Amino acid sequence: MEIFRPFGFDKTLGLITFALLAVGFIMVFSSSAVLAEEKYHQSLYFLVQQFVGAGAGLAIILFILTVKKPFFQNPLVISGLLLLTLLLLALCFVMPPVARTNRWIQFFGIRFQPSELAKVSLVLFLAFYLEKKAGRLHEWRTLVLPLFIISIFILLILKEPDYGTALLVFFICAVMLYLGGVKLRHLSLLGLAAAGLFAFFLFQASYRLERITGFIEPDKDPLGKSFQINQSKLAVGSGGLLGLSLGQSTQKLYFLPCAHTDFIYAILGEEFGLLGTLAILFLYLAFLWRGLAISARSPTSAGQLAAAGLTLIICVQALLNISIVLGLGPAKGVPLPLVSFGRSSLISNLAAIGIILNISQRKCLERKRR
After folding, report:
1. How many whole angstroms separate alpha carbon 12 and alpha carbon 4?
2. CB-side exposure of 62: number of CA atoms within 13 Å?
3. E strand or H helix at 4, and its extent?
4. What is the pLDDT of residues 55-104, one digit of tens each?
5. Number of structural domains found in the chain
6. Which helix (H) or strand (E) covers residue 110, if one does?
7. What domain range is 327 assigned to?
8. What separation in angstroms does the CA of 207 have from each of 211, 214, 224, 225?
9. Which of 313, 293, 300, 254 shows the shortest CA–CA distance to 13?
10. pTM of the full predicted structure?
């Protein structure tokens, strides 16, 4: 039994979300104004687009907060969201390619990346399924359906191609299966199969191997394979303790590719220094703390799994992005959640946060009576 407290959501998580959004607005404008002026003759172009994405995402949060029924446990909602996401992923391959990839769908001038929605869909599906089959997770036949669905989604994302997102999706799903009660021996076999799949796709594209060799030997080809990582580390290092101050970055002036998207953390380090980068890292760690606390207090196991999985989507992606920017891993196309420019990522992440906040409004009836 549970009770629903309207707008009794976790205020700390809400404040952390708004803080990250505010940092994102500032850094998107700072890192993209020159590019936007040259490309669109509007220095505010990317900032306005970020505002649009944030507005849509916040509207979704407000709607989700008012939903009293645990919709994330409704089989019709789960099935519908899965089918919609699968359809959108398939539609990517009939859309005109963007930068030689099939990651986006576009209707009426609006572009959306379905792989961002796939993260949320899979987490909600696994949370629902693992609770429903809790007593039979030791049987392989129980795992056939979730493994099949996960495999289809990952294969479609790999074919776009979006190797980094596919790896992230697999990792989150594996953690969800473990938290849901799947035995380690089953997960180890799943890991071996996944390793073979990812290794196959790794060797299908030479640029992926170049990113790995560039990471292992950054000084061997500083103007080629290692250029992006070297420029990123240069940006972070030149910021020192306090940074060069807002707007004074030089790396964003066409030296560092993807300065307003995947490598926005490097520009933040250049302009706000070590203290600025540590402050952002602290916000993500605080987000992780509140998300897991909400998960632990959820009155149902599906709510616990959903809150934990959605929290990990944001925090693991953030730590992955930061590690890449600092040269601790090979480059992947993974944005910094809530901060990097990108409407698809922003809307999907805010929708995930809305579900976490909705779960935080649900309390166990017995606890309330005490």
Report:
1. 19
2. 6
3. strand 2-4
4. 999 999 999 999 998 998 899 999 999 999 999 999 999 998 887 889 99
5. 1
6. strand 110-112
7. 2-369
8. 6, 10, 11, 9
9. 293
10. 0.94
